[in-house]
Design brief:
single chain; Metallo-beta-lactamase, Chain A
Length: 263
């Protein structure tokens, strides 16, 4: 089976819309703005076959309606969030064959399993399959999303679920935040040599205006402080920030998430 290509379309201020494509079809993930999608489809002579949403924020769903005026396609999205344009409300299911637990892209012979990953929003989901992970605003390159609707425990559980995916899984998240996230991470874990090396690579990519994504699960486990809440240096940094000793991962996570919010 020939795997489809993944293409990044820049949108709004710092969003990425991900295009899953072959030579004549395309599906889009989190189209916050229809214009770059429509321009790309026309330029590449591609037919839109599906829209996939990870959560309800306007910068991820704002282009749905305009795309649907041009194409009649299924729109997948979280079952537990209010997105008026959805046609397929999906959620994580233990039965991996369940229709409501998958997004089907038959033109690519690709099935993406739905994962529930609340925290950034209450009903946030991810799509995973063929070593591809589309995770919206939950896991970022060297960071994670803000806790707008969920708790620290929920977000930490969601991040751990993603961290348990195979190391080679490629991560396609919703924003170009990587360099700023690395600057923060170096404050939290200054002794992490992998992080220092990653910063040099990412800085060069940004100087060339090249996306820093996709990342991988292996890279995130080595450098992302929000996946490393059991590391001694991060525990010490979080405790210093909180002004008291911290021992459990949820408290450590909450402290560094609050720190990042004010960074």
């Amino acid at each position: 089976m020939t795997m489809p290509h993944i293409v990044a379309l820049r949108a709004l201020t710092d969003n990425y819309i991900w295009v899953i494509r072959d030579h004549c079809h395309a599906a889009v993930v989190d189209p916050g703005d229809a214009s770059p999608v429509l321009d790309y489809l026309q330029r590449e002579n591609l037919e839109l076959i599906a829209i996939l949403n990870t959560h309800h924020h306007p910068d991820h769903v704002g282009g749905n309606a305009a795309l649907l005026r041009e194409f009649t396609v299924p729109v997948y999205g979280p079952a537990n969030e209010s997105i008026p344009t959805l046609t397929h409300r999906v959620k994580e299911c233990r039965d991996h064959e369940s229709e409501e637990g998958n997004a089907y892209l038959p033109e690519f012979s690709l099935t993406l399993r739905v994962l529930d990953i609340p925290g950034h929003t209450a009903g946030h989901i991810a799509y995973y399959g063929a070593n591809l992970l589309f995770c919206g605003d939950t896991l970022f390159a060297c960071g994670c999303g803000r806790l707008f609707e969920g708790t620290a425990q929920q977000m930490l559980d969601s991040l751990q679920k993603l961290a348990d995916l195979p190391n080679e899984t490629r991560i396609y998240c919703g924003h170009e935040y990587t360099l700023n996230n690395i600057r923060f991470a170096r404050n939290v874990e200054p002794g992490n040599q992998a992080l220092i090396e990653r910063e040099a690579v990412v800085r060069k990519l940004r100087e060339q205006n090249v996306p820093t994504l996709p990342s991988t699960i292996a890279m995130e486990k080595a450098t992302n402080p929000f996946l490393r809440c059991n590391e001694p240096e991060i525990i010490r940094s979080a405790g210093s920030r909180a002004g008291k000793p911290l021992s459990d991962p949820v408290s450590v996570f909450a402290a560094i998430r609050d720190w990042k919010d004010h960074f």
